[in-house]
């Protein structure tokens, strides 16, 4: 468990001894696929550390339209804001497959911080780093065109496998549109041009990047 906690950005820089205190403050829980573990707008008092599985983080408008903020895998965490204030949840989180978490309740987290000031400082530094990343994501949405957001998404998700780069996470055109804040029609047009231009190939809903994507569409 300590080796898994080391992969979670919130706890970067913590020693094994410090991580053992974190582990002692958490309880393991497993949720089935499709479980809503956090609901936007509701009160919250726990943070979820994803040990195994995959979740999507999303917000929705008054008409029920969803915008996917992120799809997260093992080593990520959600719900951390609830440990620091009494405000409602800012987004919903749903499991995309059976997922196992370490769950830390607010009271246990605050006790951990009070009893171990060195952990408190490191966690706060990591939270600031997370905030900077979120600010960059918002800037991308506000200032970049749809194609650039699609390109950045693919480049962020791509991993090298057997000499080629691919996005292993299965993604429909609608899923891509939800991730970049666009319409499915616009994403379909971009994908058609990328495939026609020999930049990408789609196999079993997985995207293979054949060459460096152009800077502009």
Helix content: 25-40%
- Strand percent estimate: 25-35%
Strand segment count: 12
Sheet bearing the most strands, described?
4 strands, antiparallel
Mean pLDDT across all residues, rounded?
88
Cα separation of the termini: 45 Å
Helix count, DSSP H or I runs of 4 or more residues: 7
Based on secondary structure, the structural category is alpha+beta
| Series of secondary-structure elements, N-terminal to C-terminal | HHEEEEEEEEHHHEEHHEE
Strand order of the largest sheet: 1-8-3-6
Can you characterise this structure?
- 38% of the residues lie in helices and 26% in strands.
- By secondary structure, the chain is α+β, with helices and mostly antiparallel strands.
- The protein has a four-stranded antiparallel sheet with strand order 1-8-3-6. It has a four-stranded antiparallel sheet with strand order 2-7-4-5.
- A hairpin with a 2-residue loop joins β9 (159-161) and β10 (164-167).
- The longest helix has 27 residues, at 117-143.
- The protein starts with a helix and ends in an 8-residue tail after the last strand.
- The mean pLDDT is 88.
Index terms:
single chain, 217 residues, alpha+beta, 4-stranded antiparallel β-sheet, 12 strands, 26% strand, globular
């Amino acid at each position: 468990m300590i080796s898994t906690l080391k992969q979670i950005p919130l706890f970067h820089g913590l020693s094994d001894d410090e991580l053992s205190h974190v582990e002692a403050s958490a309880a393991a829980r497993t949720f089935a696929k499709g479980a809503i573990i956090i609901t936007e707008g509701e009160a919250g008092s726990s943070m979820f550390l994803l040990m195994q599985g995959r979740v999507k983080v999303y917000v929705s408008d008054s008409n029920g339209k969803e915008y996917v903020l992120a799809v997260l895998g093992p080593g990520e965490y959600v719900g951390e804001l609830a440990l620091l204030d009494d405000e409602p949840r800012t987004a919903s989180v749903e499991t995309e497959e059976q997922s196992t978490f370490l769950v830390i309740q607010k009271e246990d987290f605050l006790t951990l911080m009070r009893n171990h000031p060195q952990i408190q400082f490191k966690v706060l530094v990591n939270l600031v780093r997370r905030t900077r990343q979120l600010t960059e994501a918002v800037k991308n949405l506000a200032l970049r065109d749809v194609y650039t957001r699609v390109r950045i998404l693919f480049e962020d998700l791509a991993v090298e496998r057997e000499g080629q780069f691919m996005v292993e996470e299965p993604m429909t055109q609608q899923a891509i549109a939800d991730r970049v804040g666009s319409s499915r029609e616009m994403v379909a047009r971009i994908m058609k041009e990328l495939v026609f231009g020999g930049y990408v190939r789609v196999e079993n809903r997985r995207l293979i990047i054949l060459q460096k994507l152009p800077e502009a569409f």
